[in-house]
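For practice. Supply one:
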Amino acid sequence: MMTIQVNGESLKCPENVMTLTDLLDFYKLDGQMVIIEYNQKIVQRKRYSNVYLQKGDRIELVHFVGGG
């Protein structure tokens, strides 16, 4: 089990969390409402499923909340 940093917190990734898309599914977040910063670089949405997580990665998930 690998450990990564998500929004400043340590996370021991379950074995089925291998890509950024898997990480969004793990947190139950809609990929259309989230911006992902992966190791200090913004990732385009279309690439989420092609970016594989590695031990020590630093990820920031910024999600938008609608309202009035």
In short: The CA atoms of residues 22 and 38 lie 14 Å apart. Helices lie at 20-26. The two ends are 41 Å apart (CA to CA).
